Amino acid sequence: MQMNTSLKQQHSHHFDEGNPLAQKKILLATLLTATMMIAEISGGLIFNSMALLADGWHMSSHMLALGLAYIAYRAARHYRNDQRFCFGTWKIEILAGYSSAILLMMVAVMMGYSAIERLFHPVEIHYNKAIFIAIIGLVVNLICAWLLHDDHPDHSHHDHIHHSHAQHEHHHHQDLNQKAAFLHVIADATTSVLAIIALFAAKYFGWNFLDAVLGIVGALLVSKWACGLIIQTGKTLLDAEMTEPVVDEIREVIADLDRSIDIVDLHVWKVGRGKFSCILALQTSNTRLTPLVVKQALSIHDEIVHASIEINPV
After folding, report:
1. Which CATH superfamily is domain 20-152+166-237 in?
2. How far apart, in whole angstroms, are the C-alpha atoms of residue 49 and residue 169?
3. How far apart are CA 175 and CA 93, in angstroms?
4. Is residue 196 pLDDT above 80, yes or no?
5. pLDDT tens for each residue of 249-276
6. What are the protein's GO molecular function terms (predicted)?
7. What is the domain partition of the chain in residue ranges?
């Protein structure tokens, strides 16, 4: 048996460079959201608007989520050289994204419950003041959404044009921590729009019920987004990456090396945005095959940043 690593060899296991630009933008968005959250919750209570109050609740959850995303970036950077993290600290960011998704789902449930209650027990709404605050909230949400929009500053994926999975590159390079923060802001912007529609409809057409109905619609939309993010981040946290295109690429590389090689064990998991580690155990009658040869063959796929190769004779 031959292996490509030695206990005496030391190398970095920090595979993700982080996202300092997103970190700065998220801090700014957190401060803006906190300010607007106080205004909307206060306005919803004073002016008796369920839609406005729901929007304020969303603001509170989004402020916490944005703060969590910021802390995750700081923590991942702070512990990047900590030897306890055997494959780097990138998953701190993924854990923050997962936690944000759980928080988003909880608020959606609370929002839906309150909207249903208000549907059966309507109260008087002070339309003009509520509309004014809802519009300000929407403006703040749009500013935060613009700040947190993922413009993909990492251009390394352009080097993958020779890969057969080019259509999956956008997914591979997503910053899930930033995406979680962005979804919180988009969810809040959506509820702001619904609140404005409901308030105008109630004021000019007397459709007071629409305030609660659109609150329910908003809760359903937010819960759907939360479910999608929970699935995506949960998949990464559980290392459920064996359906990724890179797995087939590894198999293709081995097949091209020598048809006599059998893959007896293969594990692939994500260690950074668009970056993977793999453990590969091979069995072959080719005595000239070495782990170094296999690693060099795999190096054409630069998303594979860490590989442990084991070769066993037949």
Report:
1. Cation efflux protein transmembrane domain (1.20.1510.10)
2. 44
3. 9
4. yes
5. 999 999 998 888 899 999 999 988 888 9
6. zinc ion transmembrane transporter activity
7. 20-152+166-237, 243-313
Listed residue (211, 216, 219, 214) closest to 125, CA to CA = 211
Q: What distance in Å separates the CA atoms of residue 5 and residue 242, rounded to the nearest whole number?
A: 24
pLDDT at 16: 55
- CA–CA distance, 9 with 291 (Å, rounded to integer): 15
Q: What is the pTM of this model?
A: 0.75
Across the range 47-73, mean pLDDT stands at 77
Cβ contacts of 269 within 8 Å, gap of 6 or more: 87, 239, 241, 276, 277, 278
pLDDT > 90? residue 279: yes
In this structure, the strands spanning 275-284 and 304-313 are parallel
Partners of residue 83 on adjacent β-strands? none
Q: Are 278 and 291 in contact (CB under 8 A)?
A: no
Output the DSSP codes for 93-128: HHHHHHHHHHHHHHHHHHHHHHHHHHHHS-----HH
Euclidean distance between CA atoms 220 and 229, whole angstroms: 15
CA angle (75, 35, 204) in 5-degree steps: 135
For residue 31, which amino acid is it?
A: L
Angle at 302 between CA 300 and CA 305, to 5 degrees: 120
Tokens (6 digits) for 207: 């459709």
Assigned fold of 243-313: Alpha-Beta Plaits (3.30.70)
